[in-house]
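Posting for a labmate who doesn't have an account.
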Amino acid sequence: MKKFLLVLILIGMAAAPLSAKAEVEKSASASADFMSHYVWRGQRLSDGFVIQPSVGVTYGGFGANLWVNWDDNTNSLTTAGVTETDLTLNYTFAVEKFGFDAGYIYYAFPGGGDTQEIYLTVSYDTLLSPSATLYVDFDQGDGAFLVASIGHSFEFAEKYALNLGA
């Protein structure tokens, strides 16, 4: 719990020097993904279909998201029901063409083994939008994971876009 509070304080301190906008942007979202398997960072964690609902809110650059994995247990590696619940807190901001997203993720697993990560994403606003995210697990996983990507979005109607990435 002390580590969690430290992460929140550090994110708040990083945000303090940034100037406030006249009107703060706010949003809320909800979604549910239906997948044939649960694959996380290259590891197949389920053999049956999964449902992954998510709800999130943002206020200015701050965000919070709750995500759940529900496994149907058809040929599964785990038992049926909720197998993971993640809470993500983050702060997003930009400096010229660079974008930054710093955050904290708490991974809760039924029966124990919960773990925590902090992460930092750095992106650059150009044609292929290169980005890199470093995840550091400072709890049960005790390790780091780096993801690098490029991508481009082609808007072809006011509400539609084709997003390509690698």
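Reply:
Got it, the structure tokens are right above this. Helices lie at 2-15.
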